[in-house]
Amino acid sequence: MLIASVAGAVVLGGVLVLLPWDGGDAPPPAPGPAALARGAVTTGVPAALPDLAVLIGDRETHLRAHPLDGVSWAVLGAAYVEQGRRTADTANWPKAEKALRTSLKVGAERNPQALEGLAALAVARRDFPAAKKWGESAVEAAPKRWTAHAVLIDAYTGLGDHKGVGRALDKVMELRPGTPAVRARAAAVYRDRGWREDAAAQISDAAAAAEAPAERAAYLEQAGRLAFERGDRQEALRFFQEALRTDPDQRAAQAGQARALAALGRTTDALSAYQAALAKRPSPEYALELGELYESLGLDQAARVQYDLLRARVRGAEAAGADEELVLGRFEADHGDPAAAVRRLRTEWGRQPGIAVADALGWALHRAGEDEEALEFATIATDGDQGGGVRSALHVFHRGVIEKELGRYGPARRHLREALMINPYFSPLRAPEAERELAELGEPSVEDPPS
């Protein structure tokens, strides 16, 4: 069995790790692209796209000759998930599911790697109930496998299970304390709790300690998002630009760069950055952002082109088993049919009641004229006691507008001011609207209802 395992590792490109180096005093040669990508996808860190392509080709070739190699099927499935996540190519999802289910069928009886891969695939598809099921099965099969606990952080976040998130993070930090990947996970959780300084410190340490360019670039992009969310346009831009210098395939950083450039008033550069990001990673989210930027500039026809792209990408993603109800509901609420948005988002809330869904449903209800119920969901999205601890300017803006519509002028004024204090540039469309709404409210009146 040992001989077979070593032979398999040689084929996988891991010979430098498992066999002794007998090259005298000279250092062993660096591992090849397939080995680098395999190391990344099996240890919970981002992988470089060129390395992923090599790994996928290598494993596909290997599996044609060795179709009963369950470990290689799991590696291939994980590589498809990572490639799809990085490129927004949802054609990867059915291929990943087939590979991972094949691994379960032909592999070892206890197969945490395949179970964890299915959990990661479900997260990528925004199917958080399935992610919870597969992630908990992976933890049961291998309780000390930190990456299985890590994927449960995403699953529980999507389900609005904030206690579950805390338990999973505690376990990850116990099993792999201080590593860059765990620091990045902690930063995301701290951000959701509204602990901005702690989140920034964790992601800064993660980026500084990361060795592989793709991993470091991913953490720099995360740092850029945190900086932008607190309204620091220049620092956000620096993080995004450094991420792109480190890994030119870091398209999330390119979209972030566009966001920061737009906030700085450099709209021509912002449009170019968005278009470049969408050319390589045609995400519905980026199409919505670019469409709204065009709309803010009065370029309605160009905005409609992006909204059509969004619809097309959503259809393709849904055909591949992804759940895009959140982004589609947000789009319909502001640019389409608010009643349809409410129907979609009610169903989404019933299935996976995360904070982002609460905010989107509250706003859709407002746009459909149901402000009393809208305020219930807007409160969930902004109330730390209910899990909405994230300091989101957009969420707080939504709550302020709904309160203004209900005649609750004191709370409305407070929340609109708070949104602009959190990030005065949070949206090219909504930030100016927040300023207009606040101006309409004027200074406090003795007749204002109490907060």
What does this structure look like?
- Pfam families: TPR_16.
- This is Tetratricopeptide repeat protein.
- Keywords: Repeat, TPR repeat.
- The structure is a single chain.
- The protein is mostly helical and about 450 residues long.
- The protein is built from 25 helices and no strands.
- It has helices at about 1-10, 15-20, 35-40, 50-65, 70-85, 90-105, 110-125, 130-140, 145-160, 160-175, 180-195, 195-210, 215-230, 235-245, 250-265, 265-280, 285-295, 300-320, 325-335, 340-350, 355-365, 370-380, 395-405, 410-420, 430-440.
- The radius of gyration is 23 Å and the shape is globular.
SSE string: HHHHHHHHHHHHHHHHHHHHHHHHH
Main sheet properties? none
Give the helix tally.
25
- Percentage beta strand: under 5%
Flag low-confidence runs. 1-21
Q: Provide mean pLDDT, rounded.
A: 92
Helix percent reads over 70%
**Overall geometric form:** globular
Q: Compute the gyration radius: what is it? A: 23 Å
